[in-house]
Amino acid sequence: MKKKLRGMKRRDIQLDFDLYRVQVPITGLADAHLSVIDIWPEGAQQTIMLVHGYAGCAETWEFQINDLARDYRVVAPDLRGHGQSDAPFTEYTMPELVQDLHSVVEALHLPDKFVLAGHSFGGSVCVEYANAHPNRLEKLILLATAGEYPLPKATALLYRAPTAFFRPWWKYRPRWNAEIHVMKRMMLNNLRKWQGWSLLRNITTPTLIVTGERDRYFPRYVFEDVGKTVPHAEIYDVGSAKHKVQLERHQAVNRAIRRFVAGEQRLSWRDTSQSEAAGHRPWLKSYSKYTPATVPIPKQPLHKFLESAATWLPNRAATVFYGTRLTYRQLNRQVNQLAHALHGLGVRPGCRVMIVLPNVPQMVVAYYATLKIGGVVVLPNPDATAPQIIEQVRKTEPQVLVTLREFNRLVKLVQRHTDLPEIVSADIQSVVSRGVYKKLLLRWQMAGMDDAGPADTGAGHQQLLADLLLDAPTHAPNIDVPPDSLAAIIFTSGTT
């Protein structure tokens, strides 16, 4: 379930990370999962895993994910109890976190060799992984990682306070994306005890160490001595950066990571790269600064795109119909309601739902509602006559027909000549003015839908869409829809 990210702003919005999220079971725990961003662009040959720090989340790698995912497979997990991952009541020890990383590696079938990068205490987890699984790493990158994390006495005493002391105000915390029991246990059982100097000496993987010149989050020596301890490490000190170097100086950090991973010579900030596609795609010149030329295709069913838009842009207009607007939040809510209603009418994954609607908001609602429950949308040719639609009903055998209440003649013909189980009729008269409604009726009559007028909803199994939505739940139905499921059967106007 999506959670609000504390202190995180999507400043460089290029990729919608939620569309690339997958779940990885936490080893040894029932019904507990890690949330992992997995972006795999076509043709990518190398894989980079990014591990966030104590109390952080995958989004702290926002700029790196957007940049690196153009050329590399990028995997960014939320550690247990952080970000979108579940927060089980475990000890949050280092062995647990290292096992979680290995679970991600195995579940997502990462290549035999991959690049591992960690920030702050996430870098310490990476150091432990490099010692436990050195044969799996191609290269190691440590950002603002210390050899130990000495705490001020006041902070250490504060963490010994009972959890109940923190709970009343924890929901108002400024930026930490972890629950209080996660923060306490990970601090007491892990971070404050960690001594990594011997582990750093044992690293055999080629290593890049990135530090911020003004990083005083812990005593300066615990950062500087890391570069002296790791054998043959390459050190890159980013001037004017503090502890969150990958956010504060993201362009410099991105260049350093790319150069190190690719093994190229150091690039100047003046060097710019042009997309190879720009020459034969002139529209790219009109893109804004942060709009990528292309994005990796998310392995998600189509309705997930609507859900993500409803989360990030809830008040943006999704449909505008003769002055009546539906926001993405409103649209997604109606889609959820109709999805539950269609499921109640017998639509199961793989079942067909024929939609015979003009360009009206109900068309969008019916389309996404069918997809949310794994149904297959059947769309007749917009110029199809009633006999052609009847024939297409016979060929596809839909469970439900969704059409307009005003298409009375079509409904009667379909009921007379087919065994269609259910008919749902949408009514737009209540959402447009009387003048607009008359114009629409005239247009539909001219298109061949004669005898337009209110249908006899008492005949057969015909129901009004508004009645179905009246008491339906507004949350999304809990139905797993694989991204490679059949989505639509669309009849064209071709002659063959």
Strand content: 15-25%
What's the number of extended β-strand segments? Answer: 16
Going across the major beta sheet, what is the strand order?
A: 1-2-4-3-5-6-7-8
**Percent helix range:** 25-40%
* Mean model confidence by pLDDT: 87
| Amino-to-carboxy terminus distance | 47 Å
Basic shape: elongated
Number of helices: 17
Question: Structural class of the helix and strand makeup?
Answer: alpha/beta
Please provide a written account of the structure.
By secondary structure, the chain is of the alpha/beta class. It is about 35% helix and about 15% strand. The strands form three sheets. It has an eight-stranded mixed β-sheet, sandwiched between helices. The protein has a six-stranded parallel β-sheet with strand order 15-14-13-11-12-16. Strand 7, helix 8 (about 220-230) and strand 8 (about 235-240) form a beta-alpha-beta unit. The protein is elongated, with a radius of gyration of 28 Å.
Record the SSE blueprint.
Layout lengths: L20 E5 L7 E7 L7 E5 L10 H7 L4 E5 L16 H14 L6 E6 L1 H12 L4 E7 L9 H6 L4 H8 L9 H10 L7 H5 L5 E6 L8 H9 L4 E5 L6 H4 L1 H13 L40 H10 L4 E5 L2 E4 H17 L7 E5 L4 H12 L3 E4 L6 H11 L3 E5 L3 H10 L4 E5 L7 H13 L15 E3 H5 L18 E3 L6
Parallel strand pairs: 3-4, 3-5, 5-6, 6-7, 7-8, 11-12, 11-13, 12-16, 13-14, 14-15
Antiparallel strand pairs: 1-2, 2-4, 9-10
